[in-house]
Structures are given as structure tokens and as C-alpha cells.
Structure prediction request, 449 residues.
Amino acid sequence: MMPRRKWMLLLGGSLSAGWGHRAAGKSTAAEQAVRPGMPSPKIREVKVIATAPAGLRLAVVKIVTDQPGLYGYGCATFTQRADLVVAAVERYLRPFLIGKPADRIDDTWQACYNSSYWRNGPVLNNALSGVDMALWDIKGRMAGMPVYQLLGGKCREAADCYTHISGKDIPEVIDNARRAMEQGFRHIRVQVGVPGMAAYGSGRGTEVAERLHSSPVFEPAAYLRRALKLLEACRTQLGEEIELLHDVHERITPTQGLQFAKDVEKFRLFFLEDLFSPEDIDYFRIVRHQCATPLAMGELFNSPHEWRPLMAERLIDYIRLHVSQAGGVTPCRKIAALGELFGVRTAWHGPGDVSPIGHAANVALDLACYNFGIQEYSPFSERTQEVFRNCPVQKNGYLYANELPGWGIEVNEAAAAKYPFGFGESGDRKENNGGWGEIRRRDGTIIKQ
Prediction:
């Protein structure tokens, strides 16, 4: 009879061998499960798809890898200087990127960011953003996941949106706002025309104000009186539940801005946007100490030296960065994390002159960032949806992410070619190669736009 100790040792060895064999099998299976199934993809080609289906110049970067069928899209749209972004991508970033790995996103961002030596300008940052977003799209396609999953997954089911409402006069704004509320919007940005003037966000009509020049005219004092009456009417007639927003668009003096922020406090705005220009951001310290009106700022910022002190000192409530101006998803997810530490919420810029790729990037950040505040929404025209398939969907005032891998959007390049830069442009945009014209005060002084 085998001694008990020897029998136990043999049994233990047998079990160990069996478990070792199974463990080895499991390890191999696990390694196979996490292996991407293909070698690290390399960047084979970089190009820009330049298109303007809605009459606004959109620049989309397409990065093609050396893996068959693996590519990605990114938004590099800077409408007012679109041709320069195309050149920045194709003549400078393209030769820099060819042959580099497509799966090292942060490393590639840092390399591109530093490659120009002078940095944090709108042209180069938009070019870099297009590359960055395209690499995130590739990463999502490799993983078989939408980008928001790569950022940590959903913190919410959809992104609450605000829509733009305007009118030539206050009754028209009220009527249009009611229609938006019927469509399910809970947040509405309201803007109203000023008779004879080029007020921001609304038509100027046929009346022309007296002036000493032939350019469009704008007078801050007239606008301020009109805006106060608008907000009072909206709060009174639309009720307490609707969230109201208003965009000053940096067109008034800092002192006027300080007074205006105090005057509108009683209307309990969701936020007041662009009260000061980037050149005047020190005034945020003053206004913060004098009223509780929530403030949003940032769509014109390119450099962290502009937005960082506003967030760190809690001088604004919403960071309104234009994701392609800031350099793409890679820096913006870091900016959002910083905002979370200081109680600043996100409100990414989402106008019509952002491609659907850019809107998809906004939504991915909206879903994945805990300190989401609100998302600006601009509808996609039929021609835009002809070029960009599977755009994000708005329903009942919420914007939903595409659940396909990456951004989930495909670009129909044949359709894009039907709408080249310049399509549908007229007036200042046509004369200035897609750029804006000028607006002056009655005496001829240029004002900020």
C-alpha cells in the first residue's frame, strides 16, 4: 500500500499538472482575446476632403492606414481660413505623419503639436485636430466600439442640447421659441434683431441705420436695450421652466458687459455667453464678484494660457471650446477633466460650420465626461447628410451618439466633390473667399465680431 504522504504528493503533482495545463490554455486564449488581430497599423496616406454642402467650408482629414479597409476621419474645419488648413495638413502634417503608427494617439499629438515650433494658432490647431480625431476614429474601428466607449463609457444616455432661436422683433422670437419648446427643447438661445443694424444671430432686415460709411452698422447701446427687453419678454411669456441662453458675442465694452451681466441676473439665464473678448478676460474677475449670472466662454480660445486661469479661478461656469480650435479630442478630454476639478462644466461649440465629424466628437465627450453641461445643436441639412452618412441624431432636445465603431460616420467623397469650397456663398463670404466681412459703429469704428 502506497504511503499516504507519497500518495498526496503524487495527487498534488497530477492536479498541479492538470491545472497548469488548463491555466496555460486560458492564458493563451486570453492573449488571443486581447490581441488586436493585426499588427500595429501605420499611416499610409493623409488627405483633406474639402466640401461645403450647406454653403459653409468644411475640412475633413482622412487618414488611411496600411491595413486594408482601416481608415478614419477627423474635423479640421476653420471656415474663415479653410484653404490654409488644407495646406497645413497636406503640405506639412502629411509628410510628417507618413509611416508613423496610427495607434499612438497622444504621442502623435505631442509630436505634431511641437513640430511647428510656433504653436497654439487656429490654423495649425485645426489641422492637428483633424489628424487627432481621425486617429480616434481608427482606434474605435479597430476596437469595434464607438469612441465614447474608449473614453470610459457613458455617464448619461444622451446629450441635452440647446437650439438657436431668433427673430427680427421680440414677438417673432417668442413664437419661434414656442415652436422649439413643442419639439422638445428645454434650452433655447434667444437673439433678436436691432432695427437697421447687424445684430449677432438674427437678420438685419431692410431698414438701414444712419452711418458715415457703407458697411453694416452696430451700436452696442442700442443692442443692450433691445436684448434686455427680449430677455424680460421671454422669461415672462415662456415661463419659468425653460432655460434661456444669450450670446453677447464680445460686441460690447467691458464696462457695458459688467452692467449687462448684473441687469440680466433677475432673468435667471442658463448662461450668458462671450460677455468679453479673449483680449479682455481679466474682466471676468470683476464680474464674478458682482453678480451670480452663469457665464460661458471659450469658443475663440486656441491656447491653454487663455482658458486655464478662467477655470482654475472658477471665473466661468461653462467652457465653450471649439474642439478643433483646441486641437481635438486628446486635449479636450484633459480640459474637461480639469474643469471637473474646479466645477466648470462643458458646453462644446457646435455651430453649423463644424462638420458632422466634429459634432460626433462633441457628443462622445458629452457622454463620457461627468461634468457635461449642455451641447450646442445645429441641424444637418439634406446635402450635409448626403455627404456625411450616419450623422448624430437629435430627438426631443437630446443629441444621441452613433453606436457604430469610431465616429460611425462615412464620407461620400463623390457627393462631397459636388459641393466644393465656395458653393452657395454670396456677399461677404463670396468676396472674402469664405471669410467674414466687417461691421462698424456709426462713426466707422470697427467692432469685434
